[in-house]
Amino acid sequence: MEIKEYLKKQAEYINGKIREYIPEGIPEKLFDAMAYSLTAGGKRLRPVLILESAKAVGFEKIEDIVDIAVASEFIHTYSLIHDDLPAMDDDELRRGKPTCHIVYGEAIAILAGDGLQSYAFELISSNKKVPPDKLVRVINLLAHGTGIYGMVGGQAADILHEKENAFDDIQFIHTHKTAKFIQSCCQIGGVLGNGAQEEIEALGRYGLYIGLAFQIQDDILDEIGDEKKLGKKTKKDREKNKLTYPAVYGLEKSRQMAREYVENAVEQIKILKSPDVLINIARYIIDREV
Amino acid sequence: MEIKEYLKKQAEYINGKIREYIPEGIPEKLFDAMAYSLTAGGKRLRPVLILESAKAVGFEKIEDIVDIAVASEFIHTYSLIHDDLPAMDDDELRRGKPTCHIVYGEAIAILAGDGLQSYAFELISSNKKVPPDKLVRVINLLAHGTGIYGMVGGQAADILHEKENAFDDIQFIHTHKTAKFIQSCCQIGGVLGNGAQEEIEALGRYGLYIGLAFQIQDDILDEIGDEKKLGKKTKKDREKNKLTYPAVYGLEKSRQMAREYVENAVEQIKILKSPDVLINIARYIIDREV
């Protein structure tokens, strides 16, 4: 099976699991808002990377850890809901559908995001199959990669542009906003898969590099992608005066940097037991048109 | 020492510890915003209850668990920052100081709240003194009490008023918005203090009841409190058409209900080794003028 098809199948598997783990309760509108954003589609890259990283170090009991993979998508979804808010990126559409605050109002969108974050940690800490010491490590990696030293810090930098030049700025933003979360997913997979410390560290470097390549490719697709295939308007970043790789380095240099990150990522994980799927994912990240 | 003085001393101890654990990093403005709200004062009731609950079951190594107590205040602070946002309660002042979004802007206030939540879980999962199985339980209790089945759910209910009548509505709101978080703090203290299951459950009931009494007293003070002592305007809830106990039940009945909750709370914890401080805290909650 080609990697594109394989990833599609994996995303469908994750979609089914997300539906299983969607929380139910009252107030109805809060739970509806969370479910709305959780089922809005997407590549499900983060949960897939958790599971594939675990498999790459030889782990097979995927059903024991899939709730943790799902939790990573809860965090990703919270970040999208908050990113779309009027005070942030002010987006009314995501993947062709009205954003959470357009449908449910700003207050409920803020709370749906807050609640998805806490529920991710509730879900992970409810897992009874993984030993507690590993769960604590997983929670630490996830909180770190998605918090003030990771995703939240990167999002703040994207708003503030505190750095002295665009090269430092874009590197800080992409590393923190995107790559550190993806890095933590690969490390989490390594921990859950009972990988050796050396393997977990290799997965961390792999995750950081593919995270950067992923964000560069996102920037490139925003610049030159096919609007129909992407299901969204292109050149949005430029309209919003967002710092992107093509804007800072030009298209050709951006493509080259993404390729270098991918090859570097591939290099890191050759020590793993079964690195093939991760290697294909890395290469696919810069080939994708969506 | 009188309980009022004792609580003041404990709040000062917690304030010192908060300063120790305030995260540092870049982007500067994000970290400044978090520090600003973390050091804006307050009773520090939640961390104090974690520590006092641990002591009540016979625990003495407070320094080993104080980071977890501090983390609860990080969560409380995130909830205040988000509650104050224009899309939520739209408050420009808190404890006489401009709210986070007034000083740092809405985007950074949203991210400071998000980041305080994730950093709370990062802090707890970084503790090396408490055994991992207990840390997982603590994280689960905290995420549950402050998430969609607790504080976040209550805040959503406070905005939505989905219930059929005001009696059900106010009970749901106060139980979820305030009492469940306070309940989880008391349970967390019981877990960290190596309490027996029976003791942890007693602390949970105690926490739920004092949480309700605390919120009723807050409502009463908003209605008849001394603006100078409180450091804020009273009758704000009424202006904002918030559902409060005095609005639903009248002042006298509200006072009586708060007293009953407190006596019920006291009854629960008589089985503990050293319940005296917790008993005094319960009684003080409805005597307080601030």
Structure description:
2 copies of one chain form a homodimer. By secondary structure, chain A is mainly α. The first copy, chain A, has one domain: Farnesyl Diphosphate Synthase (Orthogonal Bundle). Chain A is 72% helix and 1% strand. Chain A is built from 15 helices and 2 strands. Chain A has a two-stranded antiparallel ribbon with strand order 1-2. In chain A, β1 and β2 (97-98) form a beta hairpin. The radius of gyration of chain A is 18 Å and the shape is globular. The two termini of chain A are 19 Å apart. The model of chain A has no long low-confidence stretch (mean pLDDT 96).
Short note summarizing the structure:
Two copies of one chain form a homodimer. Chain A is an all-alpha fold and 290 residues long.
Itemize the secondary structure elements and their pairings:
The structure is a homodimer of 290-residue chains.
Chain A: H1 3-21, H2 28-38, H3 45-56, H4 66-84, E1 93-94, E2 97-98, H5 100-104, H6 106-125, H7 132-146, H8 151-160, H9 166-192, H10 197-224, H11 227-230, H12 236-239, H13 245-249, H14 251-268, H15 276-287
Helix pairs in contact in A: 1-4, 2-6, 3-4, 3-9, 4-6, 7-9, 8-9, 9-10, 10-14, 10-15, 14-15
